[in-house]
Structure formats: structure tokens, C-alpha cells
Amino acid sequence: MTNGQDGSWTFLTNHSHVLICLVRDPEQRVRDIAEQVGITERAVQKILGELEDGGYIARTRVGRRNRYELHPGRPMRHRVERGHTVTELLDVMGRPVEASTDDR
To answer: What pTM, to 2 d.p., does this model score?
Structure first.
């Protein structure tokens, strides 16, 4: 599995990729998130734990599955991103991609 088109690098972290997956479908299985992000299920579980510990998500058990509630008003963590919230990222990246005529 790879993160980018050629797998060498990407603009966003796996943490942001997981959040983007959750904003699109808060009831996704870890397996589905792992497949979309291109990382192992174990890595997704670790990221989910870190996001939960940081207060960015809350997990609720619904039957045999989890439902994730996002708390995107929290600040982004890196000093370069200081002054911005996760909401700003998710507002742009959480929407499904639409075809663009600018990609010629």
C-alpha cells in the first residue's frame, strides 16, 4: 500500500487522512480506513487512539461497530499551522472531489 501516487511522499499526514475518511463516513470500519489511506489496520488503530487521546474524536460503540464523532474545532498541532483549526482542513478536504476543468 502506498500513500501518494508513487508512494514517495504526500502533503498531508496519515492522521489527517484518517480524519478526512471519518468526516466522509463516521461509521467506517478500521479495515476500510486502512485501505483508503494506504496503511495497516494496526496503524489506523494507533492513529485513532492518538486522535481520541488528543480530543479530536470520540468513539461510541454501536452494536459491533464504532461510530466516530469529530471535534474539529480543536487547534492544529504543528507550529506552522498555529492559529488554524482542524475544521478548516476538513471543510476543504472532507468534501468529495468534483471534476475540475482546471486540471487540463
So the answer is: 0.81
- Strand bridging mode 57-62 / 65-70: antiparallel
Q: One-letter amino acid identity for 72?
A: P
Q: Is 86 helix (H, G, I), strand (E, B) or coil?
A: helix
What are 39-97's pLDDT values in tens digits?
999 999 999 999 999 999 999 999 999 999 999 899 999 899 889 999 998 888 876 55
**Per-residue pLDDT tens over the stretch 84-101:** 999 998 888 876 555 444
Amino acid at 97: V
Yes or no: say if 35 and 24 are a contact pair by the CB < 8 Å rule: no
Out of 3.40.50.740, 3.30.565.10, 1.10.10.10, 1.10.150.130, select the CATH number for domain 14-93.
Answer: 1.10.10.10
